[in-house]
Write a structure and sequence with these properties.
single chain, alpha/beta, six-stranded mixed beta sheet, binds alpha-D-glucopyranose
């Protein structure tokens, strides 16, 4: 670098020196532009503002642009080479579960209980998005702990347990960004974005975008932990959420965005609002005045304005003395810091290689298949109906609306994923491969769920389809039945008042059961959320929940059906018996009385249909006694827990050991049990493994409403997957 090279353009200079130098050179207008996130072109996002949006080369960020690297570079070249300071734009996109190679939706990933797989698939997503799309920043991971499956966005998160969500959040952040600042700045590593900060998943009644009444303790006990883990993993950005928390909108919430995030957790990156979140302060009846919207959002700690351009009023607000330049500088510093940290000044242009060269690589598709295999959950398997032996079957009925549908495996936020047969092979295609000697009889059986309207789905039925399905069932040796949600029934603005199967599918189950007599009826159920269909399920001999598992979905489902893969998924979110049972989740608090505390109009013993952590295997796992002994040496670990797990069946398999802690007495009431750790192990038939856990003081502590953690001596119970437990006492 020559001596007249400005400090901010010298990569050998410390990031903070480059930030300060660049900031000192910027005009008020240039600073304000850095806090805008705009759109460009008529991309796939229908929200976009009409045709070609005017391109503003000094803008801080562009989102949802799917024009590919070449076009993106053309715009970036104008920003870098044709403006006074040449500040690169940071290009964002919703790369939620894949850019081109499609992976299982996040909730399904969590059911694998393999965070290392999420790290791997996030790495692939980053490489494809950067190389093929010129994406520098993904609006992912969505990390919200969710208790209400009526809320359509549970599909985007890692389920109901804070510890599970923390593990997967960390994995995703590392996959996208790498582990260290040295990695962050390399090409192919993209900035992560923890969203939606915070509490959006507590949206009242499971409706979307609604008010959330979250107590300070619940905020710390349930909703903040995954964000804290993501910040600790180095996430460079967060996205503030649409909801207001007990009256203070998240986008203008100084307590969460500054006091917690910056002052307590030391976060140094920036926060972007969610789409229109700043202007929506009017809809929330917080303020209809754009000046107040801007000042309150910025002063609370929300640095960038997504898509609604309210922050274009910053220069006039500063000139009018309504907004301090110090507040503006603080936000601009954060944005510039991330741009320097992610190496944008050194590599502002993405590679320009053909999509076929950079995407869908065999190892990427293998990762997609591995993730699908581990995500699927065997919910029911009466009389060991599964696995099937294809050779013994002459006639297999393939009945249901999803056999020839590809989108059903893609789900919401499919980025640039193609839902065609070549990339997302249908279940029907794969069934032909896995049952080569059988006569396959296909019948749709009922209308497919409408992509447009849940009401249409609820009303749909077709007598002719139903009769044809019954006839096919009557003549087959085994019936494979596809059920559940279509590809777009879960996701944003997809809240549902009920989470049952649509009537036409319930009718189909009954008709098939009647026609099949005692022949096996096996269901493959798709969905982006838990569904509650326990009554209809009584007619099914086996249920494999295949979620929305991306490009590997159909292959993995057939491998499990035929025993090539032993299912190992476990539920990361509870399945209620009926929608009326919501909320029901793993770390609920203890009732004052048992027995009379449950719904008197649910016939079975109360509690959920399938609890968190539930999932069947083709083999058996037996737990030995659990021991808890004081830790040998003084330090963070207070106790050491040990348990043995044996594979006492005939097939290799994977078991997830869940460590549940019950605090029997505390100054603030505690959950009946809560997850403090989990570990998935692989066991050959006859193999026994000892699993140990260092039980730390932090694990034994509980959190108060101000975020402080309290460790109180007393009695605890530790359980391993609910199969074996030990009581122990912490004395001091
Ligand atoms: C949406 C979503 C958010 C997404 C953003 C950009 O409204 O709430 O998750 O990242 O807009 O597409």
């Amino acid at each position: 670098m020559t001596q007249e090279t400005p400090i901010y353009k010298d990569p050998k200079q410390p990031v903070e020196a480059r930030v300060r130098d660049l900031l000192s050179r910027m005009t008020l207008e240039e600073k304000a532009d850095q806090l805008l996130q705009g759109l460009i072109g008529k991309d796939v996002n229908p929200n976009n503002l009409g045709g070609e949006n005017s391109f503003r080369p000094t803008i801080g960020s562009i989102l949802s642009y799917s024009g590919g690297s070449k076009a993106r570079n053309a715009f970036q070249r104008i920003a870098v080479e044709n403006t006074r300071l040449g500040i690169p734009i940071i290009w964002g996109y919703d790369v939620i579960h894949g850019w081109r190679t499609c992976f299982p939706v996040s909730l399904a990933q969590a059911c694998s209980f393999r965070p290392e797989l999420t790290e791997k698939l996030s790495r692939v997503s980053a490489l494809e998005a950067w190389t093929d799309g010129g994406v520098d920043w993904t609006f992912s991971p969505m990390v919200e702990v969710a208790h209400d499956p009526r809320w359509g966005r549970v599909v985007e998160g890692y389920g109901e347990d804070p510890v599970t969500a923390q593990a997967f959040t960390t994995a995703a952040v590392v996959g996208y960004q790498g582990k260290t600042p040295e990695e962050w700045k390399q090409p192919g590593y993209i900035a992560a974005c923890l969203k939606h900060f915070v509490g959006y998943s507590a949206s009242e009644g499971g409706r979307d975008y609604h008010y959330t009444d979250i107590s300070p303790r619940a905020l710390w006990e349930y909703y903040l932990p995954p964000f804290e883990a993501g910040v600790a993993a180095g996430a460079r950005t967060l996205m503030s959420s649409f909801n207001d928390i007990c009256g203070t909108p998240a986008v203008a919430n100084h307590y969460t965005e500054t006091e917690i995030l910056r002052n307590q957790w030391g976060f140094t990156g920036f926060i972007v609002s969610d789409w229109g979140g700043v202007s929506q302060l009017k809809a929330q009846r917080y303020s209809s005045d754009p000046a107040v919207q801007t000042v309150h959002s910025l002063e609370a700690g929300n640095d960038m304005d997504m898509a609604d351009f309210v922050f274009t009023n910053i220069p006039e607000l500063v000139k009018a003395g309504k907004l301090s330049i110090a507040t503006v500088d603080l936000a601009v510093e954060r944005v510039l810091r991330v741009k320097f940290e992610m190496g944008l000044f050194e590599h502002p242009y993405a590679p320009e290689v053909p999509t076929e060269e950079s995407c869908w690589k065999p190892e990427y598709l293998e990762t997609a298949l591995a993730a699908a295999r581990e995500a699927m959950v065997l919910l029911k398997n009466e009389k060991q109906t599964l696995p099937l032996a294809p050779s013994g079957l002459k006639r297999v009925a393939l009945i249901g609306p999803h056999w020839k549908n590809n989108l059903v495996h893609i789900g919401w936020w499919g980025a640039l994923v193609k839902d065609d047969e070549k990339h997302a092979p249908s279940l029907f295609t794969k069934a032909q491969e896995f049952f080569p000697d059988a006569e396959l009889v296909y019948e749709q059986g009922c209308p497919a769920p409408s992509v447009k309207s849940n009401l249409e789905t609820l009303a749909a039925r077709d007598e002719a389809l139903l009769q044809a399905a019954a006839a096919a069932a009557a003549s087959a040796d085994v019936i494979l039945l596809t059920l559940g949600e279509g590809g777009h029934q879960s996701g944003e603005y997809k809240s549902r008042r009920d989470i049952a199967l649509p009537p036409c599918q319930e009718e189909l189950i009954a008709a098939v059961r009647k026609a099949a007599g005692d022949k096996p009826v096996i269901a493959l159920v798709s969905g982006g959320r838990p569904l509650a269909f326990q009554d209809a399920a009584r007619s099914l001999d086996a249920i494999l929940y295949i979620w929305q598992c991306g490009y590997g979905a159909s292959q993995a489902a057939m491998e499990i059906l035929t025993g090539k893969v032993n299912p190992s998924g476990r539920l990361a979110m509870t399945f209620p018996r009926t929608v009326g049972q919501i909320p029901v989740y793993v770390n609920q608090h203890h009732p004052a009385r048992f027995g009379l505390n449950e719904y008197q109009d649910i016939p079975e013993e109360n509690g959920p249909w399938f609890p968190f952590g539930y999932g069947l295997s083709y083999t058996e796992f037996t737990y030995g006694d659990l021991s808890v002994t004081p830790a040998a040496s003084e330090g963070a670990a207070a106790f050491t827990a040990k348990v043995t797990v044996s594979n006492t069946g005939k097939m290799a398999g994977s078991e997830t050991v869940f460590w549940y802690l019950s605090d029997l007495e505390a100054s603030l009431t505690q959950p009946l049990k809560r997850v403090i750790a989990f570990r998935k192990i692989d066991l050959q038939p006859g193999e026994t493994r000892e699993v140990t856990l260092s039980v730390t003081r932090d694990m034994l502590s509980y959190v108060r409403g101000d975020g402080s953690k309290v460790l109180e001596p007393g009695d605890f119970i530790l359980s391993a997957s609910g199969k074996t437990e030990a009581k122990f006492t912490l004395n001091a």
